[in-house]
Write a structure and sequence with these properties.
Layout lengths: L16 H12 L12 H20 L1 H5 L8 H26 L5 H9 L16 H22 L5 H29 L3 H20 L11 H6 L7 H19 L9 E3 L4 E3 L5 H11 L3 H14 L1 H25 L1
Antiparallel strand pairs: 1-2
Helix pairs in contact: 2-4, 4-7, 6-7, 6-8, 6-10
The structure holds Phenylacetyl coenzyme A.
């Protein structure tokens, strides 16, 4: 089902050594690569793969929280959640536009998502069962996103790096609104605190999986780090996230569901228990709790939105004809 695979990510493409060395020298000198610059085919394809997967994640990521907009407990919470979900959709649109600068069309990317040929982040295949899950998604999922995406603000490809600057600012608001939901629940009744603990129990491990496979399983990391698309390994970012998040859980009075989590004085960071990579790959390959539902919904809303796309296209065509007529008349 998922077959994007190794699309030239090894850099072993038709370019000659001198071209690849000159390109690497630009990267090493921290020059940004822009859409019209010469670039190895592997670099272009790696970016299309990562940026389109990223855009799809933002779009599919609207579903678990979107489901709670009508059930948010107060008007204030509803307004904040509505804004958040809308912003995630906006991030998807910037990222599709940024990916288009590499020569792939929005239609191709959309088609890959709708047919299940493209990946999106594993995390969105887990359900949001309670209101506390909305807090946990903001706190943990957006928290993981910020850790990963702050580094992407320094990505070597200009349009991706620039898109990430605004996206990170908005994700930072999202993280705080999630944490604030949990602060409220943890200061509430015993039952509310239990809901918060249950949400942490279910979202902790899937949030750690968001950073991607460890050393051996991360087939793209080495080349992507050489090209400075990625600045850190998946494991390094995961460790940074754990170090930042454990004290936040302690502040809430919640227990991180990892009996092996221990402070390592030497490395000044936490050691964590084993991640269930079988579960990760099952979810990535389409067999998570909500994969089918997410894709089915996305296909349904795409079909239902056909009239909007047709109307926008008809309007653009009419406007172009009017503008052309006005231009001819003015000559
Ligand atoms: N889920 O060699 P690596 C968001 C795949 S945005 C599914 O390490 P890479 C906003 C990977 O694609 C969240 N698949 O790959 C929001 C590759 O398969 P392929 C998304 C995964 O690319 C918040 C294979 O495993 N963020 O959440 C996952 O170097 C709240 C081998 O892996 C981004 O996309 C996974 N978790 O590193 C919205 C950030 N991890 O393509 C709503 C940009 C790995 O060969 C609510 N992306 N795979 O078939 C990245 O930084 C990187 O692509 C990584 C993976 C770090 C995700």
């Amino acid at each position: 089902m998922y077959s994007q695979g190794l699309i030239g990510a090894d850099g072993k493409t038709h370019e000659d050594e001198a071209f690849l060395a000159a390109f690497q020298a630009r990267i090493d000198a921290e020059q940004k690569i822009e859409p019209n610059d010469p670039m190895p085919e592997g670099y272009r394809k790696t970016l299309i793969r990562q940026m389109s997967q990223h855009a799809h994640s933002e779009i599919i990521g609207m579903q678990p929280e979107g489901n709670w907009i009508s059930r948010a407990p107060t008007l204030r919470r509803k307004a904040a959640l509505l804004a958040k979900v809308q912003e995630e959709g906006g991030h998807g649109l910037y990222l599709y536009s940024a990916a288009e600068t590499l020569g792939v069309s929005r239609e191709e990317m959309t088609d890959q998502l709708l047919t299940g040929a493209a990946k999106y982040s594993s995390i969105f295949n887990y359900p949001a069962l309670t209101w506390a899950d909305i807090g946990a998604i903001g706190w943990l999922v957006d928290g993981a996103v910020i850790m990963n995406q702050n580094a992407l603000c320094r990505c070597s490809y200009g349009p991706y790096a620039r898109a990430m600057i605004r996206i990170c600012k908005e994700e930072s608001f999202h993280q705080r609104q999630g944490y604030e939901i949990l602060i409220t629940l943890c200061n509430g009744t015993e039952q509310q605190k239990e809901l918060a603990q249950d949400a942490l129990n279910r979202f902790w491990w899937p949030s750690l999986m968001m950073f991607g496979p460890s050393e051996g399983g991360s087939v793209h990391s080495e080349q992507s780090m050489l090209w400075k698309i990625k600045r850190f390994s998946n494991d390094d970012l995961r460790d940074k996230f754990i170090n930042a998040t454990v004290p936040q859980a302690e502040f809430l009075g919640l227990k991180v569901p990892d009996p092996d989590l221990t402070w390592n004085e030497e490395k000044q960071g936490y050691d964590h228990g084993d991640i269930d990579w079988d579960e990760f790959w099952r979810v990535v390959k389409g067999d998570g709790p909500c994969n089918r539902e997410r894709l089915k919904n996305r296909n349904r809303v795409h079909r239902e939105g056909a009239w909007v796309r047709e109307a926008a296209l008809a309007y653009a065509q009419k406007r172009a004809v009017r503008e052309e007529a006005a231009r001819v008349a003015a000559e």
